[in-house]
User: Fold these one by one.
Assistant:
Number 1:
Amino acid sequence: MSFPIARPRRLRRTERLRAMVRETRLAPEQLVYPLFVAPGAGRRSEIASLPGCFHLSVDQVAREAEEIERLGIGGVILFGLPSAKDPLGSEGYADDGVVQQAVRAIRAACRDLLVITDVCLCEYTSHGHCGVVEGGEVKNDPTLELLARMAVSHAKAGAHVVAPSDMMDGRVGAIRRALDQSGFADIAILSYAAKYASAFYGPFREAADSAPQFGDRRGYQMDPANVREALKEVRLDVEEGADVVMVKPALPYLDVIRAVRERFDLPVAAYNVSGEYAMVKAAAARGWVDEERLTKEILTSIRRAGADVILTYHAKDFARWTR
């Protein structure tokens, strides 16, 4: 059909019409909100590079989680700031670590909120890398045992899902075996399957105090130029037992999200990362953009690309805007 019979504008005339034929829908229950857990009590300090996000002590995390659940957001993912760091990141897999305490507190306070835990050593190691360092090099295989211990400790605390973000080869399989052998066969693994060595992580590294003390992470995180490699990484994680696979970051890698969605049948997650969030907040603070419209457009684009789940610092704002 051609003009004048074909008039696509007919279905754009009113909001009711647009809503009725809308192809991509996004709801708060599809979002996961990141939380940063810090030592101490009564702590709620705003993170300078992530306006509206806070370092929270365990008691404050529980209160925050109650609000998040009331807003209808699907879940939270927890990152920990330990009271002390060492070369092996031992507080990351300690039974009384801040994340383990936070998991227990949230499970006690919230009935339905999904609790996901980040499984990585970078926040807990004195050198800031995601694995065991020997001779100035991040070693893959010795790291796997520690990641597995961390995942099991999170499961014991009550986590519903563990999310390895380290990008060590074989870590999904190591974690799956450890969980199963420890009686946690029902705990799901959300794998950071295609995690790129991105410049968009800057604010997060301040928030989590996780910047590497030497070198960088390009030796284990992915080259931003590669997409076929991402599909290989995802395939390996699926074969090792991942239940959900994630692409990180989201906006610069919408093509990767789409490629993963088309190739694999598992649920696909995407992380709308700290740098993406901070740019929106900075521009909105200067009056350069309409924050609500821009945020909704960004999250819809990630969903449209194929993400079933979106991890985003915008989750609370989005939930309030759409109530």
Number 2:
Amino acid sequence: MRLDGRVAVITGAGSGIGAASALAMAKEGARVVVVDLNEASAKSTVEQIEKAGGQAVAVRADVTRAADNQMVVEKAVATWGRLDVFFANAGVPQSPQNVEDVDEALFDRIMAVNVKSVWLGAKYALPIMKKQRRGVFLITASTAAIRPRPGMQAYAASREPSSP
């Protein structure tokens, strides 16, 4: 198993790409911290991992808050003594609409979840990885960043492929 003994934090792991990634990493031997704003969804992913023989814990967190990101990283280290993978996957989509019709609150939410949370995850995960002298920081991007779809300008800007 390629991730045997490794510890992975995955944000937005209650559904979609995050849940699929959590299941795949657990299948490869990783112990997974399943992070989601929806606690029931996070617990559902953990149940699936455990049913398949893996190890995971569910953590309800708002990835736009520094304290929650710090708590998630501390939970991984307190539970399993290390942090090897941080997958900043949580994201907010945008329904197509004209730029002049985009509500400022929606724009702010998209940027907070899709951009700020990546920085916050890195802020707390990377010092642990540097101390261990190993680790991987992954970010979900989107082809929308290089081929924007009409009416999805805030989302496209928020999913620019980059690194922390």
Number 3:
Amino acid sequence: MRLTDFKVLTFDCYGTLIDWESGMVAALAPLVARTGQALSRNAVLEAHARHESRQQRHTPGKRYSEVLAIVYKRLAEEWAVAVDWAECEAYGRSIADWPAFPDSAAALAELKRHYRLVILSNVDNASFAASNRRLGVAFDAVYTAEDIGAYKPAPGNFAYMLEHLAGMGVRRDEILHVAESLFHDHVPANAAGLRSAWIHRRHADQGFGATMDPGVMPRIDIRFESMAALAAAQRAERGG
């Protein structure tokens, strides 16, 4: 498989382009300090993943910032810390503070010269707009959970994206889905018949962090440890 075989790159955002794990851990630090427990970074992220995944299944129509407010409340209950709703809502708004990975903006700027770039993200539109300012690129299409009324890995998210891209004249075989999360992205991308590139940001870490265990290892067509490596690989194919 050659990267230059594709015309459209579809991206997960959080975990792939935006460093959501660092953003979560920073925003949760005051709450974690009040637990009196020695919770590791991965323990915090794994607890977050459990509550987030469950909440998204039960309330797929809620905006992601609203889901995060409930996740914060559930975490506080699990860790026996009293919180008020204003504190929960503040955590939901913290998405705007989550940093981009250092290589994301430059890699996207380079890729934009050769591909149409598309977002398929488990987020609401206002939160993505804040994150996109950190990425500094104009995406050709943005499909959010708020638009769709469901959260990945629900198959409807990929079906929605593919239907809209088909309306733009894009064939399935022209698309490469680029993502970190095996659970949210690669498993449903396999089911949708898409080729995929794994941006394995957590290559130096154990476990699945802020995502759930996918249960099975999906097919991975190509793997990189960063967006910079993906950009470099397509540049090399073009003789750059």
Number 4:
Amino acid sequence: MKKITRILAVALMLSMLMIASACGNDAQQGGQDAQGEQFTISEGTLTMVTNADFPPYEFVQGGQVVGIDPEIAAAIAGRLGLELVIEDIDFDSVVISVETGMFDMAMAGLTVTDEREEQVNFSISYANGVQAIIVPEGSPITHVDDLFADGAFHRIGVQLSTTGDLYSTWDLEDEGLAEVERFARGSDAVMALNAGRVDAVIIDNEPAKSFVEMNTGLKVLDTEFANEDYAIAINKGNTVLLDRVNEALRALIADGTVQSILDKYIN
């Protein structure tokens, strides 16, 4: 029943995104970057979609979406002479909303994967991410190898459609080593861990540290589950915007802006 409900929900989301994309295309117009080159945007804005439950990369503070990704996106928009507009939606709809043209780009701690590259183009990488493992204090899981030990079987909590979901599915669930429970938000997975519904949560390292700081009795294991690069997702049909974003991003990396933003949020 849950599977059928999810299929219907995804179908409805796709229909809404396609309608929004068709309407939005009528408002598309040529923009100019600082060099005067043309690229496709909407009404002088750069629209970014994210899921603001991924601190410190994106989170809600004072009613605004803030964090590493919004600040880097704002710096990119500034170099392109555009106004940044951010939309917060469910993570499992982030990539498809860019693929269908509803938004110009996505920044949500997105890892480049083969599956996602079939849907969208990716910019150069601007940050490195580590998939970490959160467990309760005193857990028998003390090392990543414990998840792969002979006879091991654990309940793993993940955020739906994240790389933590993908890796734990491929490496653990498909190998009969775990049952993966998927949640709409990372914070929901951590709540399930606190309640004893799952044995561990696999999620990106920086959000993992933030969640542990907010929840006593939890810890992040010293050993990582996977290592990956974050990049910006852009519609495959908008290659000129991809080029302009990459140019802006390279300049912001070269002048230290990106590193200063990372240092602001990550010790």
